[in-house]
Every structure is written in structure tokens, then in C-alpha cells.
Design goal:
Layout lengths: L5 H8 L8 H23 L3 H6 L1 H28 L7 H33 L5 H17 L1 H9 L5 H25 L1
Helix pairs in contact: 2-4, 2-5, 2-6, 2-7, 2-8, 4-5, 5-6, 6-8, 7-8
Keywords: Membrane, Transmembrane, Transmembrane helix
Length: 185
């Protein structure tokens, strides 16, 4: 299948530092998907009243921050337990820890824009119902971009097939969130 024109997506589609290793690309993409699904689950239970009172913002930010720290903690424990190697130099272990931290950032960033939109609803910049809808839509668009992000971190060009896969990914993610809300709340 033909690639999309290079002009408009060059900066979006290509990493400045080149493609990530398979391990790091997988870790980062996993964090991106996980963070977005949990942020969407936090947004879909928001009500106009919870937006007006600010609790929706707290729940979305709290979901992003606590999930980020839980993920980083779990990664550090797993690495310390499984791959502990006393012969690995301190500087190399420090760099690996920083990479793990960086690869988890998409979890926290998934909650950022939705929380800002909900905050605008709290301060009556947007009507609270619209704030919930827009915050959710932002996350659905991020989820739809998963195949695009995957191609980017792997250093591959974008194609129409990747865009269609994104829409399918968003549909599946929406079903996962619906099940989480119906079963877990």
C-alpha cells in the first residue's frame, strides 16, 4: 500500500533520535495504550456535576499520576528482582532506570489534555457536558492514533492501512472501557 505524502507528517511521524529499540518501543506503546484506556475510563464516569465541582478533574489527574507511579514502581521492582546483575555498572543501571521512567511518561500524559478540558468546564469556559464529551473525544483520538504511534517509534512510514487500523483500535478500546465501566463501577 502507498505511503502518505512525506511533507505533512514528517515531523509527526519521525522521531528526531531515530527509531527506538523493539523493547523500548513496546514499553512506550504499552504505556501509551494503558494510560489512554484508564484515562478514558476515568472520563466516561464523569458527570456535568462532577465537572462543576472539580472532582472529575481530580479523578482524571489522579488516575494518570497514580497509574504512572504504580507502573514505574512495578517496572523498577521487576528489574531489580529479575534482572539484578551486580556486575552492571552503576551508570548503566541509572540510564536503564531513566529509560524506564521515560517510557512510562505516556501513562501520565494521557490524562493531561482531558484534565485541562474538564478544568475549562469547571471554570465555565466550556459547558460541563461539552467538557466531558470533548475530553473523551481527545482520548478516543489518541487511542485511534496507536497504530500511527507504533509506526513512528519503529521508524516506519504511515499508510492508509495504518489509519484504518487506528479506527479499529479505537473501537476495541471503547468496548474495553465500556466493559470496565459496566463491571467495575
Amino acid at each position: 500500500m502507498r505511503s502518505l505524502p512525506r511533507r505533512w507528517y514528517h515531523r509527526l511521524a519521525e522521531r528526531r533520535d531515530g527509531p527506538l529499540s523493539a523493547h523500548r518501543a513496546t514499553a512506550r506503546l504499552s504505556a501509551y495504550v494503558y494510560g489512554n484506556i484508564l484515562a478514558l475510563a476515568a472520563v466516561v464516569v464523569a458527570t456535568p456535576t462532577s465537572v462543576e465541582h472539580g472532582t472529575a478533574v481530580v479523578v482524571v489527574i489522579g488516575t494518570g499520576v497514580t497509574t504512572f507511579f504504580a507502573h514505574v514502581f512495578a517496572e523498577f521492582i521487576a528489574h531489580a528482582t529479575i534482572s539484578a546483575d551486580d556486575t552492571t555498572p552503576h551508570e548503566e543501571r541509572r540510564l536503564l532506570a531513566l529509560e524506564e521512567l521515560r517510557d512510562a511518561v505516556p501513562i501520565a500524559s494521557s490524562a493531561t489534555f482531558p484534565a485541562l478540558i474538564l478544568l475549562s468546564g469547571m471554570f465555565d469556559i466550556l459547558e460541563s457536558g461539552w467538557a466531558v464529551l470533548i475530553a473523551g473525544a481527545i482520548i478516543v483520538v489518541r487511542i485511534a492514533s496507536v497504530p500511527l504511534v507504533a509506526e513512528r517509534v519503529r521508524g516506519n512510514p504511515l499508510s492508509l492501512r495504518v489509519l484504518v487500523a487506528g479506527l479499529a483500535t479505537a473501537g476495541v478500546a471503547a468496548l474495553v472501557v465500556l466493559l470496565k465501566v459496566l463491571i467495575g463501577h
